[in-house]
Amino acid sequence: MESLNEIKRDTLGALLEQGKRPDGRGMHDYRKINLQPGILQNPEGSAIASIGKSQVMAGIKFDVAKPFPDRPTEGVLSTSADLLPLASHLFETGPPSDESIELARVVDRGIRSANIIDLNSFYIEEEKVLALYIDLFILDHDGNLIDTAALAAMSALLSARMPKVENGKIIRGEFTGKLPVKEKVVTCTFGKLGSKSFLDPSLDEEKGMDCRLTLATTPKHLCAAQKGGWGTVTEKDLMELLDISLDKGNELRSLLRD
Predict the structure, then answer these.
(1) How many CB atoms lie within 10 A of CB 88?
(2) pLDDT for position 1
(3) Would you say 214 and 106 are in contact if contact means Cβ atoms under 8 Å apart?
(4) Position 116 pLDDT exceeds 60
(5) How confident is the model at residue 3 (pLDDT cuts 50, 70, 90)?
(6) In what order do the strands lie in the sheet with 196-199?
(7) Cα dihedral across residues 137, 139, 141, 144: positive or negative
(8) 86 pairs with which residues across the strands?
(9) N or C terminus: fewer CB in 10 A for the chain?
(10) What angle do CA 52, 53, 57 make, to 5 degrees?
(11) How many Å is the Cα radius of gyration of the chain?
(12) What's the CA gap between 209 and 194, in Å, rounded?
């Protein structure tokens, strides 16, 4: 750990012991959240989400693809994340980093595990299915990119339109209605330092914390979880944070428009 991060860790630990956070928030409070669905014309769906100063744009595109051999009648769902260098001095150009791969996979896992999209309805004909691509672009990074990206992706999916398909091809610019989405999936990410946990870690808090826990939920259940960092999370911690994530998840879902 760099010397600066050690200082941030000591400072953060001292504040947490007093029940405080650097920006004055409560332990389980989000920063200000903004959502702008349908902000792009060309994609089938789009949105920009911001939590604090972190900002992520999501775009939805459909294409015709070959199904996976073990799922010949099931459509394809794929999520990618681009950590743009303009968003942070921490990001560099080049092939996908470990951070971008993890971000995309965590967002994808929540959506996929909840089965909110019927991929079997994407079947066109033998060896042809629709592929749904969720592209995430990090515009500004000030911590907790996972929740910001997941919120942008969910908002974009809710705004997405189903393309018209004729003779095994997509008719660009023509649509058959909205993409059917069964539930709204959101993630709640907690930082942990020692025995103290806190929701929506800022970038400074991320540099000082021991580990991160992300819980993806629908209104009714937990559908995915991901831990990052070297710290530990006990069973008691997990159950307490699950209750909080279900409650806070409902607050996030209230911001999502069908």
Answers:
(1) 17
(2) 46
(3) yes
(4) yes
(5) low
(6) 196-199, 186-193, 211-217, 222-229
(7) negative
(8) none
(9) C
(10) 100
(11) 19
(12) 8
Q: Which two tokens stand for residue 186?
A: 């959101």
**How many other CB atoms are there within 10 angstroms of residue 6's CB atom?**
12
Span 118-152, pLDDT tens digits: 999 999 999 999 999 999 999 999 999 999 999 99
Spatial CB neighbours of 98, under 8 Å, sequence gap ≥ 6: none
135: Cα within 13 Å, side-chain hemisphere: 13
Packing angle between helix 145-159 and helix 98-113, nearest 10 degrees?
50
- Let me know: does 209 contact 201? Beta carbons within 8 Å: yes
CA distance 17 to 166: 62
The helix/strand/coil state of 8 is helix
What tokens does 64 get?
A: 């015709």
Kindly report the length of the chain: 258
Q: How far apart, in whole angstroms, are the C-alpha atoms of residue 206 and residue 243? A: 22
DSSP string spanning 147-173?
HHHHHHHHHHHHH-EEEEEETTEEEEE
* Secondary structure element (H or E) that encloses residue 214, with its range: strand 211-217
Please tell me the distance from the alpha carbon of residue 188 to that of residue 198, in angstroms, as a whole number: 10
Give residue 7's pLDDT band: very low, low, confident or very high (50, 70, 90): confident
Residue in 86, 56, 74 with CA at minimum distance from that of residue 132: 74
Domains of the chain, residue spans: 3-253
**What is the CATH architecture assignment of 3-253?**
2-Layer Sandwich (3.30)
**Cα torsion angle, 97, 98, 101, 102, sign:** negative
Rounded Cα–Cα distance for residues 208 and 198 (Å): 12
